[in-house]
Amino acid sequence: MDELGRRTILTAGLVTGLVACTTTDPAPPAPARFDPADWDDVRALFPLDPDLVHTAAFVLAAHPKPVADAIERHRAGLDADTEAYLHSHGTAEAELRKTAAVYLGGTPDQVAFTDSTTMGLGVLYSGMRLRAGQDVVTSTHDFVAHHAALDLMARRTGATVREVALYDDPRAADADEVVSRLRSAITANTRVVAITWVHSSTGVRLPVPAIAAMLADVNTGRAPEDRALLCVDGVHGFGAVDIAVADLGCDFLSSGTHKWLFGPRGTGVLWGRAWDALDPVIPTFSEGSSPGARFTPGGYHSFEHRWALREAFELHERIGRGRIAERITVQATRLKEGLAKIPSITLITPDDPDMSAGIVCCEVDGMDAFTAVVALREAGVVASVTPYAQQYLRFGPSIVTTPDQVDKVVTAARALRP
């Protein structure tokens, strides 16, 4: 740990020893008795209103019981004796990094912790070193926070940011065309290729491994400082798609863990394998010299939430990433099939599960998305609106919904009238 971390987080060894002798972590509650293979048991872990169909739960997670219990346990310990509890949990972040690496793939030293996808993108692009003449390629489909982070990097470095449309009609988005369009935009001076795994604007899922393979060819013969780095906003694929981040082939991925993973609100990860291309921009309090530690922003955080992220990863491991992804795919496919049969509704998201994930977007003839959301809530369905200039009605079936509830969504959508 650097000296700043020592002064701020740790006191003298005598005090640390005294704390260790006088303070114990409150005993965790007995493990919840539930069958991770039983979807009713999984849904019962969530405190969501059972009278509603929650297809917007991915926007900001409700805490499942193991996560909520961990938050409360850490909160109680911090409230009872903050100083002692902090010292007795000096290795909590390092242990969390190991747990995260099991889910993410790769190694613990590749994992930095943040408060959100946006913070991760800020840490990534604020620290990225670009030489004069190097540029950035991104897409027209990315969220405003991604574009804003790139704009800030451009101001700092003088780099040009170029945007390319990866598809014209999201419903007909094609993997080969996406890769081809992106390849055509990359030049010998391109240092950063910034994309989003699953577009929250349309539900289109990009073929990240294929893009990574294309970039591997592009980078053949390039010096390390000239490699085109693949940087991914992964938030709507993370926890929803059955692939480890380390297997995507990207150089960096930023994701909030409070969406499809249903982790503690205000938590996130920044995974990387090319940390030498960055400089830290926020001093760290994390112990150790690994990249993940050095690029974890310091300061006092909501520790009860960060430390409880361990339970979120463990819960997903217990249920099974493959089973979760399949559950989401089955429901999203069922929803798309049902909506496609309604004459007044135009689907936006591709049918192909390889080009989509959990998000399903559509338009209702003669009705704006906000009005549709209000009408659906009156029918017991919680939906959302895409936060872009082009606003679509958006659904996100997940582990808190059921196929029968998907049918209820279709029935409610069929009843929408302008």
Looking at this protein, list some descriptive labels.
2 domains; globular; 418 residues; 7-stranded mixed beta sheet; 40% helix; disordered N terminus; 4-stranded antiparallel beta sheet; alpha/beta; Aspartate Aminotransferase, domain 1; Aspartate Aminotransferase, domain 2; 15 helices; single chain
Summarize the structure.
The protein is an alpha/beta fold and 418 residues long. The chain is built from 15 helices and 13 strands.
Quantity of strands, as a count: 13
**Rg estimate, integer Å:** 22 Å
The run of helices and strands is: HHHEHHHEHEHEHEHEEEHHHEEHEEEH
Oligomer: single chain
What composes the largest sheet?
7 strands, mixed
Residue share in helices?
A: 40-55%
Stated plainly, the CATH topology of the largest domain is called Aspartate Aminotransferase, domain 2
Shape, per Cα inertia axes: globular
Terminal residue distance: 60 Å
Tell me about this structure:
- This protein is of the alpha/beta class.
- It has two domains: 95-318, Type I PLP-dependent aspartate aminotransferase-like (Major domain) (Aspartate Aminotransferase, domain 2, 3-Layer(aba) Sandwich), CATH 3.40.640.10; 321-414, Aspartate Aminotransferase, domain 1.
- It is 40% helix and 13% strand.
- It has helices spanning 3-9, 13-22, 39-44, 65-80, 82-88, 92-104, 117-127, 144-157, 175-185, 208-218, 291-294, 303-319, 321-340, 369-378, 403-414; strands at 53-54, 111-114, 135-139, 160-164, 190-196, 229-233, 252-256, 268-272, 345-347, 360-364, 381-382, 384-385, 393-395.
- It has a seven-stranded mixed β-sheet with strand order 2-8-7-6-5-3-4, with helices on both faces. Strands 9-10-13-12 form a four-stranded antiparallel β-sheet. A two-stranded parallel sheet has the order 1-11.
- Residues 1-24 and 26-31 have low confidence and may be disordered.
